[in-house]
Amino acid sequence: MKRRAILAGGASAAAGFSVQPTLSQSTSTPAKPPTATELESAAAQLRSRFSRDFDPAYVENAILPFFMVSVFHGERPMLPMIDVTLTKENALPAHLWGLISKSWRPAPEKGVTVFLQALEKRGPDNRRKRIYMSGVTPDLYQGMYSGKVTTFFEALLGNANAGKPLMRRYLDTFWDMYWDLHLGVKGEAIPPQVRKIGMSFNTVLAYLNPTDRIVYDNYMIVRENLDFLKSWIEARLADIETGKTPAPEKTFAWYWLKNGKDDDNFQHKDVVFECFHNFVAFSQWGNSLYNIMLKLGTATGDPQIRDWFRKTMESGPDGAGDSPYTPLTRFVMELFRVVSPNSGSISSLQETSSPAFKRSGYIISPHTSTSFDAVHWKNPDEFDPSRYEKVPTSAQVNEQWAERIGMARCPFGKTTFDVKDGRKVSLHNSAVGTVFGVADGKPLPVCDYAGFAPFGFGYRRCPGEQLTIKVFEDFLRTTWKHGIDFVKLDVADPEVLPIGPTTVIRDDIGFTRRA
User: Fold this and answer.
1) How far apart are CA 511 and CA 501, in angstroms?
2) 3-state helix, strand and coil shares in percent for the chain, rounded to the nearest 5
3) Could you read off the pLDDT of 158-206 as tens digits, one per residue?
4) So what's the pLDDT on residue 357?
5) DSSP character string of 294-321
6) What is the reported pLDDT for 13?
7) 360-366/69-73 β-pairing
8) 208 burial level (CB within 10 Å; 0-12, 13-18, 19+)
9) Cα-to-chain-centroid distance, residue 193
């Protein structure tokens, strides 16, 4: 297990950041731990250094905790699960809490997200996650969400944007799709403050270093607008509940409200929290889109991936046959194995004894390196969507599977949660805790195999995985339909854009289209 500073790699390296968390211990040169007095002295120096340029509360709650964060590289899982000891409870680097809490720290009395909650606090059988997933199960996508997503991509890849840098246009219009999916509002119905807080939130996640001015300015914009955002979401939820919102069943929130009704494990305040905490999860669509365009690009692309895309679309992308996945779904899954939306699953760590100075530590269960581990695949470095025809789905990872690999019992017993929104849908789990839907008696499984790691593992697996795959299927359908070629533009001074967590790019990718 290797230890690293929070700034290692990603956007921080690209942007030339040089500030490092100097109060963290280093494993390269073993030394006597600093005393509490020495740490207090160092903290005082930091306060003095940064208080000249930043708000004192920001220095105390963002900059100082940043210097006290340690992030560790964890092991690559051999099985598709993370042990419950590596908890999700408050698994957010301490310097980022001010983005989602006015008190700068966890405030569960004001709402909680499943992404930052330990399994034992989610209710029986991972109840909170099942309620969250009730709004994004694959049976909903075609009838409820695809129209909104396709409309967005048709506009993004329309003639008006051909030959122009694309990611700026993506960022400018993304929030219409985001809020339309969550609450059924778009266009002028989204106040400028709501658009602004979303952009600022994304900018902080991209640049990350709280000592950088662009992070500070955008961090404070988020805080200034946080109460307004929550109030606005509350009002839109009321519109959904009273029927004022047209087609409310075409929003995530409608299913969360229906299936969380009278359930303490997903209260109304939690629906509000999930609606804006999804800034984190959905921001990864930006860097995913950009990396996929690069892989498919005329000059920047991977010939093997481009060839597989052509074969997939020409041979019939939707004929699953006996496979649990269609050819297009397998292609998108393989794309995500290659361009992992994020580098790993973060867990908070508890020290065995009280530290001399308040600090926080986290461990990353890696996604990308696990997806490319030769233990899991005979051809890990090849782009091969057919690999998913041969590995188990969550519906197949059951008691018999556990027995075959030598387990005395399943790590997670099989349970179900029936939705309350009128559908014949229930949320089941595999032997390793992965939650998946069953609609009208038909399983809607995911690939429950450690070698497919872009969305995490077991009970910790991203609940929006299948939604994300469906969204990018629609992106590729639109790309193919219009004969889109992604090209590197000859732009003299491309705009520098924050497009996703730890991802800052120069906006010089555009497209041509034949239809």
Assistant:
1) 24
2) 45, 10, 40
3) 999 999 999 999 999 999 999 999 999 999 999 999 999 999 999 999 9
4) 72
5) HHH-TTTS-HHHHHHHHHHHHT-TT--T
6) 32
7) parallel
8) buried
9) 23
